[in-house]
Amino acid sequence: MDQDRLRAHTTDQQRDRLRDCVSTADQARQRARDMARDAKSAGYTIDQATQQRDQLRQRVQALRQQHEQLRQSLNNEQRTMLQDRLLVMEQQQERSNARLQEMDQELNQGKLDRNRIARQSREKEIRSRLLDQR
């Protein structure tokens, strides 16, 4: 992809939306990092896990909305240039939702597998970082 050409054809509004997406993704990564760190402690409770999961879900939902707004603001040429990136973003969102649903099932059953929560949270953060590098 010709980054300079794409940059030259983006509007200020699109750049603002992209910055919002990056900021929200950073916040989601931080929430995932916090959850992974906290889940390793012996005193970690289901209530804490539920609260952190809800915070992470809010960030993921905000990111989905921002991605959709950005996607809608793109013209056909921009969509074509970003086709692979847009597909990867959608796949990441689907994986994030699946991970959150797994956490929902576990927490709703009153189970707290701290190692699994830490691993899932860490995986979410790592995948998100990998997407930023593409």
Structure characterization notes:
The protein is mainly α and 134 residues long. It has one domain. Helix content is 85%, strand content 0%. Helix 3 runs antiparallel to helix 5 (83-108). The longest helix is centred in the first third of the chain and has 28 residues, at 12-39. The protein is elongated and about 50 Å long. The mean pLDDT is 81.
How are the SSEs placed, and which strands pair?
Elements: H1 3-8, H2 12-39, H3 46-73, H4 76-81, H5 83-108, H6 114-133
> What is the count of β-strands?
0
Average predicted local confidence, pLDDT: 81
* Total domains: 1
Oligomer: single chain
Reading the helices and strands in chain order gives HHHHHH
Coarse structural class = mainly alpha
Q: Mind summarizing the main beta sheet?
A: none
Q: Helix count?
A: 6
What fraction of residues sit in β-strands?
under 5%
Helix content: over 70%
Radius of gyration (Å): 17 Å
**N- to C-terminal distance:** 11 Å
Shape: elongated
Low-pLDDT stretches are none
